[in-house]
Design brief:
The strands form 5 sheets. Strands 1, 2, 9, 10, 11, 12, 22 and 23 form an 8-stranded mixed β-sheet that branches. The protein has a 4-stranded mixed β-sheet with strand order 6-7-5-15. The protein is built from 11 helices and 23 strands. The protein is an alpha+beta fold. The two termini are about 25 Å apart. The chain has 2 domains: about 160 residues, 3-Layer(bba) Sandwich (FAD/NAD(P)-binding domain), CATH 3.50.50.60; about 140 residues, D-Amino Acid Oxidase, Chain A, domain 2, CATH 3.30.9.
Length: about 400
């Protein structure tokens, strides 16, 4: 069987669904097909992320992340409110732990102003009025537009909307290889006038089949959250530390979920194959060999001190260590409160082979037949709607 379409989207995460919906709007009358290898959309990063809608002040003004996070926050907030989906407008405090970190609060405020993001400088007393248990050194930053949603609920509703808008969503269909006019899958051949690769953890491998991702490889990192047994409402707002702006990770922090529960994390533990969620689950020997080779190279030479990062993150498998790190941000944190691990997620982080660095921004490569979303990491969930419009604009007129 060969299925023909105008557009074929590979991957049913939030990026894939958002792009498929936008293609239907931008290219009127076009046939849009999306394939997803799992039995449900959002089974991987999109359904396993923190659920935080970011505001957009972490990113330099020249980045795609800065361009899309602010508008994406507004668009997804409006989407959730208009469809009656859960959203917790709890805001976020970014706190300093010593004198040296105050300069980084100033840097974040500068980025917020350049990006047109509402961010408020508060002193210690003002921070405590927002969250009485917070620990900060002299001052902090408050982001009123940061919020939380339920990722699974959002993904289910986006899937339903995509179907209602005319997108064909084919579940349980796995990409196998490229063909002369399209791709081969476990359900037969799919031919398309244009292909968009949103395959997340496998975006680089699919990209290489099309002649792209020559200097990039996905390096997976495992994210774990530890849940508190304190009752909902025990924490009023997200509490984040000042991040290391050289890396794309935000450090261990407190997240208030859409339902008001508290969790700490995430980790960024190097994984040994792409879908290494638990133990030997989804074991792939070829991926293990390749990723160990990449990690070994970075261990001895990288521009972000992979050796230090790996050691710091591996220690976070310890519940006591993770709670201890979090306790620097909040009063009254005890190990006995944190016993339940949440579902693990895997971050599909892109590694630049030539620069031996982790890519901080979204990375896309394309030609007149296909586009490949190679690096769509946090805050991709927040950015999905404006990012989808950007993709459609880059495609231009419908290819002949």
């Amino acid at each position: 069987m060969t299925l023909e379409s105008d557009f074929l989207v590979i991957g049913g995460g939030i990026m894939g669904l958002s792009i498929a919906r936008e293609l239907r709007k931008s290219f009127h009358g076009s046939k849009v097909v999306l394939i997803e290898k799992e039995d449900h959309c959002g089974e991987h990063a999109s359904g396993r992320n923190s659920g935080v809608l970011h505001a957009g002040f972490y990113y330099t003004a020249d980045s795609l992340k800065a361009r899309f996070t602010r508008d994406g926050n507004r668009a997804l907030t409006e989407y959730c409110e208009s469809h009656g989906l859960k959203i917790n407008k709890c805001g976020k405090l970014v706190v300093a732990q010593n004198e040296d970190e105050l300069q980084w609060l100033d840097e974040l405020m500068s980025r917020a102003k350049k990006n047109g993001v509402d961010l408020q400088a508060v002193d210690q007393k003002e921070a405590e009025s927002i969250e009485p248990r917070v620990k900060t050194w002299r001052r902090a930053l408050f982001s009123p537009t940061t919020s939380s949603v339920d990722p699974g609920e959002v993904m289910a509703h986006l899937h339903k909307d995509a179907l209602a808008e005319g997108v064909e969503v084919h579940l349980g269909v796995r990409y196998l290889q490229r063909t002369a006019t399209g791709i081969q899958t476990t359900a037969g051949d799919y031919n398309a006038r244009y292909i968009i690769n949103c395959a997340g953890l496998y975006a680089d491998t699919i990209g290489r089949d099309f002649g792209f991702s020559k200097h990039y490889r996905i390096l997976p990192f495992k994210g774990l959250y530890l849940y508190s047994d304190e009752p909902a409402g025990s924490l009023r707002t997200h509490i984040y530390p000042v991040p290391d702006l050289r890396n794309p990770f935000l450090g261990v922090h407190f997240t208030v979920t859409a339902k008001g529960a508290i969790k700490i994390g995430p980790t960024a533990i190097p994984a040994f194959w792409r879908e290494q969620y638990k133990g030997g689950e989804n074991f792939n020997s070829a991926e293990l060999i390749e990723i160990l080779f990449r990690q070994a190279g970075l261990f001895f030479s990288s521009n972000f001190d992979f050796k230090r990062l790996a050691w710091e993150e591996i220690q976070k498998y310890s519940r006591g260590h993770l709670v201890s790190l979090a306790s620097d941000l909040l009063q009254g944190v005890r190990k006995s409160q944190y016993k339940k691990w949440g579902p693990p997620g895997i971050r599909a982080q892109l590694l630049n082979l030539r620069g031996k660095k982790l890519e901080m921004d979204f990375i896309l490569e394309s030609d007149d037949k296909s586009m490949h979303i190679l690096n769509a990491v946090s805050p991709a969930f927040t950015c999905a709607f404006p990012f989808a419009k950007y993709v459609c604009q880059k495609i231009g007129p419908l290819p002949k």
